[in-house]
Specification:
Length: 445
């Protein structure tokens, strides 16, 4: 538990280093002076100087995030730097800590380096540290700063308030972090969710742990879908757990962290004539995607009980209708949302046959998708050969959507949805084997 200011900080262990190697034999009858002469310091001589004063946070300044009342220079979801100046007149500074819009952790530190952090100072008497934070949303924000010295004393926390305006970047399909570039969601071997941030050049960066209530969730086996509604700057996330009868909609805070989810119950049938087997819940769901980019064409498409259904998406998920997709076996298929492949201004839908590796395109229409499909790849995308086949948007910035694949656990690759015969480019610096799922699709057949 964090201590009061000026009291020894109980959450940190202060170690005292001696120069005595652990394997050195005991020298019986040799005085302290002799030991020092041999290069062996006594425990007393290694102790830090007496310290009864707490460190001080002198100032917090920033031109990227000027204090409240000043003209903002950065916007929501844009990273910026702040300078923290601290000093200590006793045992020396151990570290300086900061957290944006939150409280200091008393146990394990938060996993999100975009909004909090610790800089170790190794006994310095004073220091100025430059830190980078990313405010997730428009409005007022507060950065709390504290310093801790080597004796465990903690400074009075200092608060720095600033304002950022709305993110002016137009919403882009697949963007989770608010920078206008699509990103990937992956699940690691421990079941934790990470964002692989897109660079806009056809690559993704190293994983950033998704923070928030999702920390306690084991994401292995979870079916995922993105929602680009136009009501937010970034994609929201829909999830379904096998055996569950509902969906969860996770609100993205603007930089990729997920707030507590809302329960999504199954919509009613909105067709003029509803079939008797129209699903009453999501218990039979095996695949889902959302199509569109926040326009009237945005829809959730699902495979439930081996049949396809379409639900319009706006402020909420609307009543659904059966979606006839002829010529494909939906009991062994995955849905893919490649965007507008044929250039007619409407999003199209792909169905991947897990067994044969066939990709079939169903062209977008004014009220859904054509029931007649066209094979765009007759092989090469089976689960055995490519366990992951998904699309989150335009990863290269060339105006064409990209297909993301994992080739039998070797590497993540992307290729244009208009050129499926290409080998594609390496997408991630880490091998796909570092993860157990990409966008909810498992990497093992």
């Amino acid at each position: 538990m964090a201590s009061a200011a000026g009291r020894p900080h109980q959450g940190w262990t202060v170690s005292r280093r001696t120069n005595v190697p652990s394997a050195r034999p005991l020298l019986v009858g040799v005085g302290v002076a002799a030991l020092v002469g041999l290069g062996v310091a006594s425990t007393a001589s290694a102790a830090p100087p007496s310290d009864t004063t707490a460190p001080v946070v002198d100032s917090v300044t920033s031109t990227d995030f000027p204090p409240s009342g000043s003209t903002p220079t950065h916007h929501a979801a844009q990273a910026g730097r702040l300078s923290l100046t601290v000093h200590d007149e006793g045992s020396g500074l151990a570290n300086v800590q900061w957290v944006l819009d939150g409280q200091f952790a008393t146990g394990s530190p938060t996993r999100d380096s975009r909004t909090s952090g610790t800089q170790f100072l190794h006994g310095a008497a004073s220091a100025t540290v430059t830190v980078t934070v990313t405010p997730p949303s428009f409005g007022n924000h507060m950065l709390a700063v504290r310093a801790i010295d080597r004796a465990g004393y903690e400074s009075q926390p200092t608060s720095y308030s600033f304002f950022v305006p709305t993110n002016p970047t137009p919403q882009v399909k697949g963007d989770l972090t608010g920078d206008g570039v699509p990103d990937l969601l992956v699940t690691d071997a421990a079941g934790e969710l990470e964002v692989l941030p897109g660079t806009g050049s056809g690559r993704v960066g190293r994983g950033i742990a998704v923070a928030g209530p999702s920390d306690s969730v084991d994401w292995r086996g979870t079916v995922l879908a993105r929602v680009t509604t136009g009501l937010s700057d970034v994609d929201q996330v829909l999830t379904h757990r096998p055996g569950s009868t509902t969906l969860l909609q996770w609100r993205n805070d603007g930089i990729g962290d997920l707030a507590a989810p809302a329960l999504v119950v199954h919509p009613f049938c909105g067709a003029a004539t509803c079939p008797a087997d129209f699903p009453k819940d999501f218990g039979g769901l095996t695949s889902m995607v959302t199509t569109g980019t926040g326009t009237a064409t945005t829809a959730l498409v699902t495979i439930e009980g081996g049949k396809a259904y379409l639900y319009p998406v706006g402020i909420r998920i609307g009543s659904g209708v059966p979606l006839p997709l002829d010529g494909v076996d939906l009991t062994r298929s995955d849905l893919v949302a490649p965007g507008d492949v044929d250039g007619d201004g409407r999003p199209d839908l792909w169905v991947r046959d897990r067994t044969t590796g066939t990709l079939t395109q169903f062209a977008g229409t004014d009220d859904g998708f054509s029931s007649t499909g066209t094979v765009v790849a007759d092989h090469g995308f089976s689960v055995r050969r490519s366990p992951v086949v998904t699309s989150v948007g335009d990863l290269t910035g060339d105006g064409v959507g990209d297909l993301v694949t994992a080739d039998a656990g070797t590497a993540l690759r992307s290729r244009p949805v208009t050129d499926l015969s290409s080998v594609g480019r390496l997408l991630s610096p880490a091998r796909a084997g570092a993860y157990v799922a990409v966008e909810g699709q498992p990497l093992t057949p």
